Each structure stands twice: as C-alpha cells, then as structure tokens.
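Inverse folding, one chain.
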C-alpha cells in the first residue's frame, strides 16, 4: 500500500467559471489600520470559506486586482503569496491563479524533505528549532530505528513555516553514532535531508509513513496558531538510506485545515490469476 497526498486541481477553461471581480465585493478600507495586503487576504479567505469563491475557479492576476482596487501591485503580491501559502490560491508561472480549498496536497510517492516540497511549489520554507538534545531511545523510537533500548539518539523539535506562517511541528530522532555533532548544525537554514546527504554523505533511499489524525493539544495549538482541539494530520515516518539503515524517525503534526491525505492501494495479482472479465 502506498500512502501519499495528492489532489489535482484542474485548470478550468469554461468562461462561466471565470470570476467577475466586481461581483465578489472586494474592497479596501482606506481608514483602517489593517494593511491593504491583509485586508485582501481576509476577504478572499472569507469568500473561499463561505463557498462564494469555489475551488477550480479562475481568479484574476495581481495586476487585475491592483487595477480594480486602485493600488500598486506590491500589497496584492503580498496577499497572493500569503493566500498561496495557505493553499487558497494555486499559482503557476504564466497562468492566472486558481481558487483552491485551503488544503495543500502532499505527495508521498517521492521522498522529499519539507523544504524541497515547499520550494517545488514556489513557496518559501523556513524552520525554528524549538529544542534539541541527546536522549535514550526507548519504545516506539527504538523500534522504528531498529536500535537497542537505551542507545543514544538526537531528539530535534522544529516548527516548520511556509512564507512565515506556522504549518507543522516536527519531532526528529536520529542515531547519535551515525550523526556525531549534528546538533551543532544550522537546522533553521538547512534541511535535515540536505545535512544527511551533503555533510554526512548518507544517500536517502526510501521511507515508511503511517498517517493518522489527532486533536491539537493546548501547547501544539498555540505553536501552530490554531485552536485547541483542531484536527491535525499526524505522520510517523522512518527514513532509510541506500544501505537499508534506518537513519531518522520523525513525528510530524500538520494543520488539518492546510493539508489533506489520501491513499492509493494497488492489488497485486499472481501471474496465473485470470484478470480479464473479472470485477
């Protein structure tokens, strides 16, 4: 069974799906202390959540919106970047934006780090190290990394951000004997995958993921800037190198209103199993 997140947004060419900007009530309060870009974000976010802007509809360009509102492109560009980071606009180079649902697809079929995945989408990833240190591997961690109980591992907790917005808390555990001194690496500006491959010469090969859902606890909700009890996507992942050695076990909590998960199951048939004509 292959677990991955994928939800394709089809580009609509039907002119009935093109939004008339004058009909959605987009406007600016010039006397408000709220910056123009944030006013635009709040209004478009509300329109998507209320289903007045529907997923798949073609939206107007930065220039169109700036011209309609009578402002420069800069605040519109800032608004579009934030809406893109929230998954509310899908923006491809040379094409008009598409309205999306606010849930970003995550593809597990290809082994990519968080930073690689976000940059692939044209977003700006960053990280904040919340804690780091050496602990003894027990229970779930020791089992996932195939270690003897009590063996030393590095425990690194990071907050992952996209365009400055908090989207995930990641707890990573890695055998200390494989990565001596990794706690001294700059893990706010460099991804762990990059450090594994470029500093320690560990070539990544594959990963096992287990996906579930949990409710945000108070501390998690505070870090992720959401409400206690909000749904979070929980991903437990063990990453292996080309020598089939488990080099990292991680637990990631992603905001459920930003990400979705789906699965494809492939049935394998024996060579002598007659497939034709069967349902």
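Residues assigned per position:
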């Amino acid at each position: 069974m292959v677990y991955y997140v994928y939800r394709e947004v089809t580009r609509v060419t039907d002119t009935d799906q093109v939004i008339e900007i004058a009909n959605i009530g987009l406007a600016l309060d010039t006397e408000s202390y709220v910056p123009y870009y944030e006013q635009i974000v709040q209004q478009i976010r509300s329109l998507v959540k209320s289903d007045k802007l529907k997923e798949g509809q073609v939206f107007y360009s930065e220039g169109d919106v700036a011209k309609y509102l009578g402002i420069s492109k800069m605040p519109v560009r800032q608004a579009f970047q934030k809406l893109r980071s929230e998954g509310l606009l899908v923006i491809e180079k040379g094409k008009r934006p598409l309205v999306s649902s606010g849930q970003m697809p995550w593809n597990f079929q290809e082994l990519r780090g968080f930073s690689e995945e976000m940059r692939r989408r044209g977003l700006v990833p960053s990280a904040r190290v919340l804690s780091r240190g050496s602990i003894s591997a027990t229970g779930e961690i020791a089992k996932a990394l195939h270690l003897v109980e009590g063996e030393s591992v590095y425990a690194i907790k990071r907050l992952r951000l996209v365009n400055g917005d908090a989207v995930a808390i990641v707890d990573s555990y890695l055998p200390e004997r494989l990565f001596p001194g990794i706690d001294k690496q700059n893990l706010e500006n460099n991804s762990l995958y990059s450090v594994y491959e470029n500093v320690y010469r560990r070539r990544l090969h594959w990963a096992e993921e287990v996906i579930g859902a949990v409710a945000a606890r108070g501390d998690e909700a505070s870090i992720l800037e959401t409400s206690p009890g909000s749904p979070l996507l929980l991903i437990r992942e063990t990453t292996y190198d080309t020598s089939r050695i488990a080099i990292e076990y991680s637990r990631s909590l992603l905001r459920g209103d930003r990400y979705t998960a789906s699965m494809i199951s492939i049935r394998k048939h024996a060579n002598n199993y007659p497939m034709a004509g069967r349902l």
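The first helix runs from residue 36 to 49. Confidence is low (pLDDT under 50) at residues 1-16, 107-111, 272-279.
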